[in-house]
Amino acid sequence: MHARLGDDLARLPGLLDEARAHAVRLLTGLDDRAVALTTGPPAPDPLPVTGIGAAGALEAFARRWEPGFAASAGPRYLGFVTGGATPASLAGDWLTGALDQNPTSGIDSSAPDLERETVAWLRELFGLPREHAGAFVSGATMSNFTGLAVAREWVGERRGVRVSEQGVAALGPVPVLSASPHSSVGKALSMLGLGRSALRRVDALPGREAVDPARLEEALESLGGEPAIVVANAGTVNTVDFDDLRAIAALRERYPFWLHVDAAFGAFALLSPDHAHLLDGLGEADSVCVDLHKWLNVPYDSAVQFTRRRDLQVRVFANSAAYLGPLSDDLDRVDLVHLTPENSRRLRALPAWFTLAAYGREGHAEIVRRDIALAGLLGERVAALPGYRLLAPVRLNVVCFTPEGSPERTGELVSAIIESGEAFLTPTVYGGVPALRAAFSNWRTTEVDVERVVKVLERLAP
Ligand SMILES: *Cc1c(COP(=O)(O)O)cnc(C)c1O
């Protein structure tokens, strides 16, 4: 054994303790750390030849790289839609690495069954019917990709083409209808060979991001009975608007389409009694995307995808080889390798299992309700601050606002907020107006954090 490896093996417990103590220092110092940084990378180091051992690597990382890392696990990182990591999910994540399971196939371990249990818990959490089978993927982009891949196979079924065998060229163009899709939908369509231009924008309701169901019906009518894919949005990133899922699902009585719902973070509104109605009809979807590294607060990378047509999913993603074992006839027991783009992968379900086991439905509902209340609070405070204007009502957990009268100052403002070290917000453009977004999905955030953000905004007001 290489000398460094042998030394590290001999002192493994001490090494893990050092890493643990280091992590504890990081997490207890989150509040004092600059929330975001633009310092750039350190000077490059050459590839180590003999190596410096794990303790040396920890020291080098802490010295060279860590100072430039954001406090994205902390309570005032409000950019994009960013969750933290609950204590239990972090413990689960460490054990994921320690156990190093590959849940691809079930011939050696019950690890895939832990993933099945976790998916079943999530299905119940999101109120999905039993017909929805699910699997873990790395994020909502892969979840949208997987759902749309099954959708593509379904369109093929309607047209008498096996896309998974014959290829997308045999299928021809497929119309994909949506009002305010996430950018990852375009990326997924590009990867699927359907092309970004397959996306046909349907008008939203006036002043909203939610689709106008009457316009969607017109668009479907114009297809003359051709099968289509509808991407419904349950929580848009700018204003967290929700399509009327029931109204959309009802259109399937007259028009053939696959209903994919992107509920990346919006699905968690189900945990708030005042907002659960926004997801009415979710169970009627053919495929559903939910991110877990956002509002479930598990470490990256984690998301789940659900579909009612696992038979078509297996057709798309089957990876049959003698050494992997047989493809089960029982769709509930099919090996995970046949369900998603990946082959070997980590047991991504374990951190999610840990946090659900530790805090249950109620613990996670509390996080969601608190984040919604905090977004509401920031919305009220921003509306009352001179120099700012809300661009949309705070519907759930995102506050979208602009510097009053000088939207062109948005970029400067984002930089000044980063510079303050107090918070991180991301820029966007909504309704043609440059704007800022503050998204609440971290389990650590409290009213004290909102007041700190308000202070910064007040100081930087145009
Ligand atoms: C975040 C998000 C995505 C993409 O998620 P990743 O986890 O970054 O791949 C897709 N759709 C919506 C609505 C999102 O909020």
Automatic annotation (TrEMBL):
Top-rank taxon: Bacteria
Keywords associated with the record: Decarboxylase, Lyase, Pyridoxal phosphate
List of residues that carry N6-(pyridoxal phosphate)lysine: 294
GO BP terms, alphabetized: amino acid metabolic process; carboxylic acid metabolic process
Record-linked SUPFAM superfamilies: PLP-dependent transferases
UniProt GO molecular function: aromatic-L-amino-acid decarboxylase activity; pyridoxal phosphate binding
Keyword flag Lyase: yes
Pfam families named among the record's database cross-references: Pyridoxal_deC (PF00282)
Cofactor names: pyridoxal 5'-phosphate
InterPro entries, sorted: Aromatic_deC, PyrdxlP-dep_de-COase, PyrdxlP-dep_Trfase, PyrdxlP-dep_Trfase_major, PyrdxlP-dep_Trfase_small
Family to which the UniProt record says this protein belongs: Belongs to the group II decarboxylase family.
Name this polypeptide is given: Amino acid decarboxylase
Species of origin: Planomonospora sphaerica
